[in-house]
Amino acid sequence: MDVEEYLKLFPGESREHPRFMAFAEAVLAQVSDLQALIADMQSGFSIAYAEGAQLDALAEALGLRRYDAGRNASDGDFRAYILRKLALRRWDGTNEGVSAALPEGVAETDNQDGTVTVSPAGINTELLPVPAGVRVSS
């Protein structure tokens, strides 16, 4: 909501005092600017939009390093690695839930012995964080 919309919310009696309304407009303008700044900052702290050093800093806050994803991992590969690691942290540990912790398009087979075998078709397995009890077949 912009400043004018907020000013319209003041009762009619307040709007009859120009100095008060000028003060309210000045304060609301600062709040509006702050809202815009916060919106811009959110995109800077989003894994989806961060690049280079910012992506490295976000990953480090999660306890991850680019080196873990491969020495020459691109931003896209590193971003996918971070998102997979986050999915793994949310995984409930069940065989049924393993598909949520793995990238789309990965075939999985429940071995009925507490393990699952996955076949990562066309996916770089070095960048694939594998949950315990999951075997990777090439």
Structural description of this entry:
The chain is mainly alpha-helical. The protein folds into two domains: 3-44, no CATH class; 52-136, no CATH class. Helices cover 48% and strands 8% of the residues. It is built from six helices and three strands, in the order ααααααβββ. It has helices spanning 3-7, 12-15, 18-44, 52-61, 75-90, 98-101, and strands spanning 107-110, 116-119, 134-136. Strands 1-2-3 form a three-stranded mixed sheet, with no helix packed on it. β1 and β2 form a beta hairpin. It is elongated, with a radius of gyration of 25 Å. The N and C termini lie far apart (53 Å). The mean pLDDT is 80.
Write the layout of secondary structure elements.
Layout lengths: L2 H5 L4 H4 L2 H27 L7 H10 L13 H16 L7 H4 L5 E4 L5 E4 L14 E3 L2
Parallel strand pairs: 2-3
Antiparallel strand pairs: 1-2
